[in-house]
Design goal:
41% of the residues lie in helices and 17% in strands. The structure holds threonylcarbamoyladenylate and magnesium ion.
Length: 545
């Protein structure tokens, strides 16, 4: 086993580090972002040691660190935009991916034809590169998958006995790794967010894109711009669960779900709210993404060391500016799983048969709004064995076809033929329908802020209690009669029976927040539906405030 020394950064230490670099060894050095495990970028033997020590997949390329802009031309093909960015952000936490020159081996580039380069803004790192007179490859000095190290002690925890030297530069000032971008003549693609934000970069290029992998999970076998994005990262051994909600909702969820082996990861000011929890970890100020970035990895490492807990709840941080870097790391720490606590904005949409409600629904769906078809739910529920048996007991075998499936038309005729029958049917169906609707809302709310219940019997079933807003579609009586005779293949009498069992227009005008009148053509109705979507969005925003 190697004796691992932690040394302060003086002349003697730097000389020792230089000797190690020039004899194909690896060591850890501080940078302003995180500690790096470094080796001579032109020495394949040394580079292989980095991959081995970290347990890093071979296809995940390394960043080459330089101390002088002249070194850039030796390793990469540049363009004007890249040189402008270098001039404005170097030395600093910006890594640029550019076409590589032959001086960079395929081992460094993970077989890509590009190379990632940065000039760190840290005296020790710059001095070491100058002394060794070679660029240094330096991935974060952690075992692959673990949180990056922001203190010499973090590096020691991962590499004690594996490397000879850790240069102790104190705590890293940034705390998350550099922003990684690919840079062409007229486009910047953000591959990994960091202290330098998309907004900072947009001052030099009006075409800044954010790569898919920043916010979404990449499959192991998917081809990506930046291989590092597809690997699990930053994860302590415990399960991390991210909850999307305000602090009150978060505290309530933790109170109801945490057990004696749960902890929380919250902002400094929130610590006192969780005095009952076994373990409370903090990472910076609520409205200050820079302090969060600075302390996140230390907090994740503290969680990892805690032997008594097996899960940790944390709240979704602000994603703006530097917050995107914090969110991106936490998202990986929790394996991309997020539980939404926010209550969705629920809209009840109702109206008589033949009013045009289906067209309004279609317009909602085409505009990306989630709609629960309550009629469909009722068809599912009615085929449930328990309910079917109860119906046959009450209405008789006549409501069933010979093959033992339900004759819906016959049931409809019987149910609408007397008030008593309708009350029986509704009393049996509504509680079960409401239960299924609630289940569907729970699922949909993970990905939708607005959910519409398409419910012909919104008020009768009392589903309106679930709603933040109600909308009805109404139309002239004769128009409706013609529409349903054609649509449902009914006789005029059957259609009238069905209509008589329903409410008149005044009922809906009285009960609903918004009424859509559909006496015109389909285009006019679609336009009205689009206007109503704007109104729903506006109302849902007001509710959040
Ligand atoms: O702040 C930092 O960048 C730290 C310090 C030590 O400088 N280094 C660091 O390196 O974070 P590492 O290896 O842990 O992360 C490098 C990231 C990975 O996600 C990798 O996939 C990506 O940069 N990368 C490297 N070369 C690339 C290339 N040619 N094309 C696309 N992405 C590349
Ligand atoms: Mg790393």
């Amino acid at each position: 086993m190697i004796n691992t020394q932690i040394q302060m950064p003086n002349e003697e230490t730097l000389n020792m580090a230089k000797e190690l670099i020039l004899s194909s060894q690896i060591l850890a050095m501080p940078t302003e972002t995180v500690y790096g495990l470094c080796a001579n970028a032109f020495d394949d033997e040394a580079i292989k040691k980095i991959f081995k020590a970290k347990g890093r997949p071979q296809d995940n390329p390394l960043i080459v660190h330089i101390s002088d802009i002249n070194q850039l031309e030796k390793i990469a093909y540049t363009n004007d935009l890249a040189l402008t960015l270098a001039k404005n952000f170097w030395p600093g936490p910006l890594t640029m991916v550019l076409p590589k020159k032959d001086s960079i081996s395929n081992i460094v580039s993970g077989n890509l034809d590009t190379v990632a380069v940065r000039m760190p803004n840290h005296k020790v790192a710059l001095q070491l590169i100058e002394k060794a007179k070679v660029p240094l490859c330096a991935p974060s000095a952690n075992i692959s998958g673990k949180p990056s190290p922001t203190k010499a002690s973090h590096v020691y925890d991962d590499f004690n006995g594996k490397i000879k030297l850790i240069i102790d530069g104190g705590e890293c000032s940034v705390g998350v790794e550099s922003t990684v971008v690919s840079v062409s003549d007229d486009e910047i693609v953000l591959l990994r967010p960091g202290l330098i934000t998309a907004n900072d970069l947009s001052q030099f290029c009006n075409n800044v894109k954010i790569s898919d992998g920043v916010l979404n999970q990449i499959k192991q076998d998917e081809k990506v711009l930046s291989p590092g994005m597809k690997y699990k990262h930053y994860a302590p051994k415990q399960e991390v669960i991210m909850l999307d909600g305000d602090i009150k909702q978060f505290a309530e969820y933790v109170y109801l779900n945490a057990d004696e082996h749960s902890g929380v990861l919250v902002f400094d000011s929130e610590e006192s709210l969780f005095s009952e929890q076994k373990a409370v970890f903090t990472y910076g100020k609520e409205n200050d993404s820079k302090t969060q970035a600075n302390q996140l990895f230390d907090a994740l490492r503290k969680i990892d060391k805690h032997s008594d807990i097996n899960k940790v709840y944390t709240r979704m941080p602000n994603k703006n500016g530097v917050g995107l870097a914090v969110y991106n790391r936490l998202l990986r720490a929790c394996g991309f799983k997020i539980i939404k606590l926010k209550k969705p904005f629920i809209v009840g949409l109702t109206g008589q048969t033949g009013s045009g409600k289906s067209t309004v629904c279609k317009t909602f769906i085409n505009n990306g709004i989630a709609v629960i078809d309550c009629d469909k739910v009722s068809r599912e529920v009615i085929n449930n064995e328990y309910i079917l048996n109860k119906l046959v007991d009450y209405f008789g075998q006549g409501i069933m076809y010979a093959d033992n499936t339900l004759n819906r038309k016959e049931l409809g005729i019987l149910a609408f033929s007397s008030e008593e029958n309708l009350i029986f049917l509704n009393g049996l169906m509504y509680p079960e329908i409401t239960r299924v609707i609630k289940e569907k809302i729970e699922k949909l709310k993970q990905t939708n802020d607005i959910i519409v219940l398409d419910a012909p019997t919104l008020f009768e079933s009392k589903a309106d209690i679930l709603c933040d807003m109600t909308i009805s579609v109404i139309a002239d009586k004769d128009i409706r009669l013609n529409r349903i005779i054609l649509r449902d293949n009914l006789t005029e009498n059957e259609a009238k029976l069905r209509m008589n069992a329903q409410h008149d227009n005044e009922f809906y005008i009285d009960k609903c927040d918004v009424v859509i009148e559909n006496d015109g053509d389909i285009n006019a109705l679609e336009q009205k539906a689009v206007d109503v979507i704007d109104c729903i969005k506006q109302k849902s925003k007001e509710k959040k405030i």
